[in-house]
Specification:
This protein has eight helices and eight strands; from the N terminus they run H-E-H-E-H-H-E-E-E-H-E-E-E-H-H-H. The protein is α+β, with helices and mostly antiparallel strands. Strands 1-2-8-3 form a four-stranded antiparallel beta sheet, with helices on both faces. Strands 4-5 form a two-stranded antiparallel ribbon. Strand 6 and strand 7 form a beta hairpin. The longest helix is centred in the middle third of the chain and has 27 residues. Bound molecules: iron/sulfur cluster (2 copies).
Length: 235
């Protein structure tokens, strides 16, 4: 099949795939002029994929409600299932985009390549912000208006012509819910005050002490519920 040059038609294809894959949110970022967003990838790969399709899947509120003072095995299992679901959805979307004659590179939901910075091949949250899905919150995660930070993300890079979304207006406003929830005291007043090292130390402690074989926590995610619960941000 030859590639459609009609961006709106291609966007409708993505929307159909979003629904078929059971995903909650989808946004498109135009990466031309945003070299930093794909800094972890080879130059050639970056040049071939001018757009990022960012997909998001909700974290179960019921699972989050079981967290008391850190991660548990139920949350760990759910976290892995979400990542697997997103990876499968990104694979399905990429294959369908290829069938339509365009390049498509799925990027895993959770594949850390730099442990010191807890960073992956791309920053899904930075791409999600560019794709209009939300803003970076005080806890250093993406905050979506619909679901707060209770989402997991994956990305498909592509050269399919698409209408791009734009970063949304929004921010944490007077909300401080995640600040009080953090067992490491890592969350400050602004995004730039976030103490990544303190967060990582706590995650490492959880991993060793609770036999949760991954660096996860969930406490600030549970606190940041977005518009489905109490409205916690100001516009
Ligand atoms: S809980 Fe409130 S302060 Fe923290 S990131 Fe979410 S909206 Fe921002
Ligand atoms: S993941 Fe846990 S330790 Fe890290 S900022 Fe969130 S609540 Fe704090």
């Amino acid at each position: 099949m030859s590639m459609s040059l009609d961006p709106q038609q291609n966007r409708r294809l993505l929307e159909r795939l979003r629904q078929e894959c059971g995903l909650d949110l989808l946004g498109v970022a135009d990466l031309r002029g945003e070299a930093q967003a794909l800094a972890g990838l080879p130059d050639r790969t970056r040049a071939l994929h001018p757009f990022a399709v960012v997909i998001a899947q909700r974290v179960s509120r019921a699972v989050l409600a079981t967290l008391e003072d850190g991660p548990n095995l139920l949350y760990f299992h759910h976290y892995r299932q979400l990542n697997a679901h997103l990876d499968r959805a990104a694979t399905v979307m990429a294959a369908e985009i290829e069938r339509h004659g365009a390049a498509a590179l799925p990027i895993p939901a959770s594949q850390i390549v730099d442990w010191e910075r807890m960073a992956g091949q791309v920053s899904h949250r930075a791409l999600a912000r560019l794709a209009g899905l939300g803003w970076r919150g005080r806890h250093n995660l993406l905050v979506t208006p619909q679901l707060g930070a209770q989402v997991r993300l994956a990305t498909v890079l592509t050269d399919l012509p698409l209408p791009a979304d734009h970063p949304v207006e929004g921010g944490c406003g007077s909300c401080r819910r995640c600040v009080a929830s953090c067992p490491a005291g890592a969350i400050g007043d602004s995004e730039s005050a976030f103490d990544l090292a303190a967060c990582y130390r706590k995650l490492d402690e959880f991993r060793r002490g609770r036999r949760v074989p991954q660096h996860i926590c969930g406490m600030c995610v549970a606190a940041c519920a977005g518009g489905m619960g109490e409205a916690v941000w100001e516009r």
